[in-house]
């Protein structure tokens, strides 16, 4: 099978709602980005969850909602949220660690849930479980198989770090065996746990050379095996124009304490552009400068938020010119089976 690669350009009017309905989780992943001091510890009541979905619904735009946590299947009313989102005309995804609490597969259906996405960071327990927890690989892969057998569209998210990048290619036969047709390769963000703990002497992040050598090559191999692959652009081509998703698309990262971010890189800081007060979406008035102010800046390094919040990810030549320009973290590449 052949493949076709392309950069997924931002579309005006595109609307993505990343809805954290709780921050609790049964796991303690070493790279978890949840920061309870910033995101709170609330589990949204069912009524609030449904009202907030209505708040972000727009019948005139294509909207995608992704239910997140913590572990969203721990929310006893997740199935009601899925049904409400579908009623509002949204495409619906649930991102799970694989434990599928509250009998989710029986409480919803493939007609309501467009994608059920599982987080897995290794092709076997020896790679995955030191990152995500003992026994997680077996539970996650078993439940993936059950979801595929039940007719759900299953995808897998693999967060690349220096602990697992050399094993990325080994995910392909695993996904084929289970019947997974979509694979999301994600770059690790320096947020939450990964911002304050080390994965070893080299830290969590892989080098630009490693990323560019390994990820596109494995993505092509996966696509040639019949799997639809999506991964962050990360590094812009030499003459490629930088665009910030905050200026051209609508992305909302909602947390149960009411904070609403436009850029995920900002989530460790109280510079969210928006917040929900009295069931209304309003600008954040507590900060003189919020993320929206920074989106306007044009710098040689590319993404200004990456430069401000993750400066160690950028290298420079002897003249002070960045060796790689960083793309918006929401700019993706796709490789499709043909």
TrEMBL record:
Gene3D superfamilies: Aldolase class I (3.20.20.70). Residues 11-225 form the Radical SAM core domain. GO terms for molecular function: catalytic activity; iron-sulfur cluster binding; metal ion binding. Keywords: Iron, Iron-sulfur, Metal-binding, S-adenosyl-L-methionine. Its cofactor is [4Fe-4S] cluster. InterPro entries: Aldolase_TIM, Radical_SAM_PqqE_MftC-like, rSAM, rSAM_sf. PROSITE patterns: RADICAL_SAM. SUPFAM superfamilies: Radical SAM enzymes. The keyword Iron-sulfur applies. This is Putative Fe-S oxidoreductase.
């Amino acid at each position: 099978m052949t493949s076709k690669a392309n950069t997924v350009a931002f579309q005006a009017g595109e609307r993505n709602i990343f809805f954290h309905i709780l921050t609790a989780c049964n796991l303690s992943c070493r790279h978890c980005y949840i920061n309870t001091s910033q995101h709170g510890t609330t589990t949204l009541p069912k009524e609030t969850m449904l009202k907030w979905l209505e708040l972000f619904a727009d019948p005139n735009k294509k909207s995608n909602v992704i239910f997140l946590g913590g572990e969203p299947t721990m929310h006893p009313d997740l199935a009601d949220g899925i049904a409400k989102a579908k009623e509002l005309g949204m495409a619906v995804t649930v991102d799970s660690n694989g434990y599928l609490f509250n009998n989710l597969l029986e409480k919803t259906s493939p007609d309501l849930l467009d994608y059920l996405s599982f987080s897995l960071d290794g092709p076997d327990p020896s790679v995955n479980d030191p990152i995500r927890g003992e026994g997680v690989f077996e539970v996650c892969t078993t439940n993936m198989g059950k979801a595929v057998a039940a007719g759900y569209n299953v995808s897998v998210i693999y967060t690349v770090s220096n602990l697992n990048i050399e094993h990325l290619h080994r995910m392909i036969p695993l996904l084929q065996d289970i019947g997974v047709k979509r694979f999301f390769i994600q770059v690790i963000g320096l947020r939450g746990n990964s911002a304050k703990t080390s994965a070893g002497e080299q830290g969590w992040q892989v080098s630009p050379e490693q990323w560019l050598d390994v990820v596109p090559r494995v993505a092509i191999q996966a696509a040639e095996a019949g799997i639809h692959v999506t991964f962050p652009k990360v590094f812009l081509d030499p003459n490629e124009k930088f665009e910030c998703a905050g200026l051209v698309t609508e992305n909302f990262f909602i947390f149960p304490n009411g904070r609403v971010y436009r850029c995920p890189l900002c989530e460790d800081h109280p510079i969210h552009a928006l917040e929900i007060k009295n069931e209304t979406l309003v600008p954040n008035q507590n900060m003189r400068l919020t993320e929206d102010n920074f989106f306007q800046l044009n710098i040689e390094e590319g993404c200004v938020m990456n430069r401000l919040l993750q400066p160690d990810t950028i290298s420079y030549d002897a003249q002070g010119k960045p060796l790689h320009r960083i793309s918006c973290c929401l700019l993706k590449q796709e490789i499709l089976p043909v």
